[in-house]
Amino acid sequence: MIRPFALLAALALSACAGRAPISASTPVVTEAAPRAMACPAELPAAARCLHGQDSAGAFYLVAIPPQWNGTLVLHAHGGPTLGAPKLERTVEDLQRWAVVVKAGYAWAGSSFRQGGVAVHAAAEDTERLRRIFVAQVAKPKMTILHGQSWGASVAAVGASTYTEGKPYDAVLLTSGVLAGGSKAYDFRLDLRVIYQALCGNHPRPDETQYPLWMGLPAGARMTAADLRQRFESCLGTDKQRTAEQQRKVQTIVDLVKIPASSIAGHLNWATFHFQDIAQLRTGGRNVFGNVGVQYADVALDRAVQRYAADPQAVAAFAADTDPNGRIPVPVLTVHGIDDPTAFVEMDDSFRRTMERAGTAGHLVQTFTSDNTHSYLSEPVYPALLAVLSEWARGGSKPTPSLVAARCAELEVTYGKGCRFRTDYVPQPLSARVPPR
C-alpha cells in the first residue's frame, strides 16, 4: 500500500513543472532546432556556438571547438540559482569553463527549467539537452557528464537515473555537494540559530517571528541587500570590525567551522534557499533539525533555538537530492581541501554512498590544496577529462598520482595551477558538522 504522503512526494519530485519524467520510453518531443550565436570571447576564435530553449522552458548553450575530439562534456551548473531561468546564466557557465572547449571538447549546459533546489528536475533537463545535442547537433563518440558544486549532486543523481542505453560514458564531479541535501545543509541551520543568538536581527524582535529552518516566511520581501545590511550592522565587514563584532565572528568561525569571509554567503543561502526548500519543495515541513546538537559553547547551547526535523519531509527531500551511488560508469572527483562553500568531508559521504551501492570500484577521488570553490585552475580540468576519457575507453583505473602527473604535463599548455595532494583522505562529515 502506498502511503498518501509518499505518493504526493513522488509526484512532486517527478513533475515539478507539471511534466512526467523523461525516460527511454517517453514519447519523443520535437525540440526546436538551436540557433547560432556569437561565442563568448573566452573561447577559441573559430569555435561554433548554438543556443535555444527546450520544450520544458530551460535555456541551453552549446559550444563546439574548431578541432573537436568527438567527446561531449555535458555540464550541470552549481548554485542552485533562484528565480526564473535565464540564458545569461548558461553564458556565464561557458565563460568559466572555456578551458573545456580550448582542450578540444564540445560543451553543452542548461539553465534548468526552474530555479531552486530541485535535483531530479535539473538532472532531467540535463538529459534532455544531451538528446537535443544528439538529434540536432552531432552524435558524440563519448559523453562525459560534468557536475560542479550543487550540480555535482545533479550529475550524480542523473547518472544513476538515466542508465538505459548508456547515455553517459563517464562522470566528472568537481567541488561537489555530494552528501545529499538531507545532510549537506545542516550546518546552515547551525549558522542561522547561532547568528540569531548573537545578533538577534534576523528576524528583529519587532518583526513577525518564524522558525529559522524556514529561511523566510512565505511572502517575505527581504532582499539580499537587506540581509547584508543586517549582517554588517551586527558583524561589521571584513575590513572593519569592533572588538565585540570580531568576538561574534570568531564564535561563528569556531562553532560552524567556516571562514569569516564566507559567513555572509552561507547566511544568504540559509535564508533564501531555505525559503525555497520550505515553501516550494516540502510543503512547509521542516527538513533541518538541531535537537541534541552540542555547539561546544555552554551559553549558546542554552540560547539557540531548537527545531526537530519532520521525518517525512526529510525523506521526501532526500528522495530528490541525495545520490544513491548506483552509477554504472567511471566516476572521477576533485575537491579543494579547504573549500569554504562545499566541505571536502562531503566526499567521504559520497564514497560511503557508492560503497553501500556496490559501485565503489567505479570511483576515484582526488584532492587539491586549494581554498576556493567555484574554479580551481586551468590545467586541472583538461587533466581530469583526459584521464577520465582514457579510463572510460577501457584503460586502467587511474590513481590520484596519475591525475597529478597529467596535470603537471599540461601546465606547459595551460599555465601553472596543479596542487594535487595525492596522500589526502577526507574525514567524515561528522568531524565538521555536529551529528543530529
How much of the residues is beta strand, in percent? 5-15%
Count of DSSP helices?
A: 15
Radius of gyration: 22 Å
**Average pLDDT metric:** 93
**Got a strand count?**
9
Sketch the major β-sheet.
Answer: 9 strands, mixed
The strand order across the widest sheet is 1-2-3-5-4-6-7-8-9
SSE order: HEEEEHHEHEHEHHHHHHHEHEHH
Judged by helices, strands and strand pairing, the structural class is alpha/beta
Brief sketch in words of this structure:
With 436 residues, the chain is an alpha/beta fold.
Structure, described:
- The protein is α/β, with parallel strands linked by helices.
- Helices cover 40% and strands 11% of the residues.
- Helix 7 crosses helix 10 and helix 14 packs across helix 15.
- The N terminus is likely disordered.
SSE arrangement:
Blueprint: H1 4-14, E1 35-37, E2 48-53, E3 59-64, E4 71-76, H2 87-96, H3 98-102, E5 106-110, H4 119-136, E6 142-148, H5 150-161, E7 170-174, H6 181-184, H7 186-199, H8 224-235, H9 243-256, H10 263-281, H11 298-303, H12 311-321, E8 331-336, H13 346-357, E9 363-368, H14 380-392, H15 400-414
Parallel strand pairs: 4-5, 4-6, 6-7, 7-8, 8-9
Antiparallel strand pairs: 1-2, 2-3, 3-5
